[in-house]
């Protein structure tokens, strides 16, 4: 079964409705997606700054509506100050809770929504920044990362990190790799194979970036990931093609095609997923943020209806795993 169909099936058979909040409720694209969610196990919550923004046709979407100007500003601000442990004043908090993005993230933190999807009009920093300050990373995680689920027919791969960490250190790259492994477990990858990518394969090239990837590989290898073989540093063709890998790295522990690709920096990751998407015909679902204590995902401003819908599905799917923690 196609992985997206499997995800959709699991969402719709989950024990209760999954609430996903959208800080950009006034976006036509978001409202279109909300309409597409009718009849699923996902309940959209649309946030509007004022009552005047709420369209007269809103009842057709079978959703919940939150209007910022109608909320108890003081109560929310006091809650925000408490969360930040004195790192923000009450007056500053009152300003921020009037913003749709902050209100939506507070809703997730309070458990009034299971996850959030935004970014049609907001920059990444306005989605992920508040999430890091309010929801924060999971207790077991040092770094928050992102990945794309690359899908073509029955093929599926994880590309990480393609959206958040610009030039990670070796230790951070190892954390990114581990979170990529964790993502693979969410999506039921069986006996996965991970490659840490470089312009070098096992010492064929030299440089600080090669050293970084090699160190990251050693750190990941020491984690002894269950049901996951890891190798690196690898050029992409070595990771992708078994025949080439047998020539360039005959002693590699990888004996099957790689399904988790760890890129050395954001340049490589962003370029790599877009090449696979545009030239390879893969559907790039994401970026999906991993490592936060609750699911929050950022959209591209140019996200299509299909992009948004798929991101909502994956966000809801991650909510299922969060509820089972």
From TrEMBL:
It is an enzyme of class 2 (transferase). Coiled coil: none annotated. Residues 3-316 form the Phosphate acetyl/butaryl transferase domain. One of its GO terms (molecular function) is phosphate acetyltransferase activity. Its EC number is 2.3.1.8. InterPro entries: P_Ac_Bu_trans (IPR012147), P_AcTrfase (IPR004614), P_AcTrfase_dom1 (IPR042113), P_AcTrfase_dom2 (IPR042112), Phos_Acetyltrans/Butyryltrans (IPR050500), PTA_PTB (IPR002505). It comes from the Bacteria. Pathway: Metabolic intermediate biosynthesis; acetyl-CoA biosynthesis; acetyl-CoA from acetate: step 2/2. Keywords: Acyltransferase, Transferase. It holds the Pfam family PTA_PTB. The keyword Cytoplasm does not apply. It catalyses: acetyl-CoA + phosphate = acetyl phosphate + CoA. The keyword Heme does not apply. Belongs to the phosphate acetyltransferase and butyryltransferase family. This is Phosphate acetyltransferase. It comes from Spiroplasma phoeniceum P40.
């Amino acid at each position: 079964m196609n992985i997206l169909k499997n995800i959709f099936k699991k969402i719709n058979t989950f024990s209760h409705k999954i609430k996903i909040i959208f800080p950009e409720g006034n976006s036509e694209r978001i409202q279109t997606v909300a309409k597409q969610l009718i009849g699923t196990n996902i309940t959209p919550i649309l946030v509007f700054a004022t009552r005047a923004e709420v369209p007269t046709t809103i009842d057709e979407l079978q959703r919940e509506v939150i209007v910022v100007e109608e909320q108890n500003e003081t109560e929310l601000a006091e809650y925000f100050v408490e969360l930040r442990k004195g790192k923000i004043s009450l007056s500053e908090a009152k300003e921020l809770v009037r913003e749709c993005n902050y209100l939506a993230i507070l809703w997730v933190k309070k458990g009034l929504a299971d996850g959030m999807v935004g970014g049609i009009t907001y920059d990444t920093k306005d989605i992920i920044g508040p999430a890091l300050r309010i929801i924060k990373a999971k207790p077991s995680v040092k770094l928050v990362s992102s990945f794309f689920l690359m899908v073509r027919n029955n093929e599926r791969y994880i590309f990480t990190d393609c959206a958040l960490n610009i030039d990670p250190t070796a230790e951070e790259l190892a954390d990114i790799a581990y979170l990529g492994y964790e993502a693979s477990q969410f999506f039921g990858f069986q006996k996965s194979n991970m490659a840490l990518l470089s312009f070098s394969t096992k010492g064929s090239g030299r440089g600080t970036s090669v050293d970084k990837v090699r160190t990251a590989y050693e750190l990941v290898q020491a984690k002894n990931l269950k049901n996951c073989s890891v190798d690196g540093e690898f050029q992409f063709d070595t990771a992708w093609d078994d025949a080439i890998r047998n020539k360039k790295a005959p002693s590699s522990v990888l004996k099957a095609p790689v399904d988790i690709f760890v890129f050395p920096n954001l340049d490589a990751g962003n370029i790599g997923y877009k090449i696979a998407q545009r030239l390879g015909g893969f559907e790039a679902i994401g970026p999906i943020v991993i490592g936060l204590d609750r699911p929050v995902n950022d959209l591209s401003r140019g996200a299509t209806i299909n992009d948004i819908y798929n991101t909502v599905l994956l966000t809801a799917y991650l909510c299922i795993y969060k509820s089972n923690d």
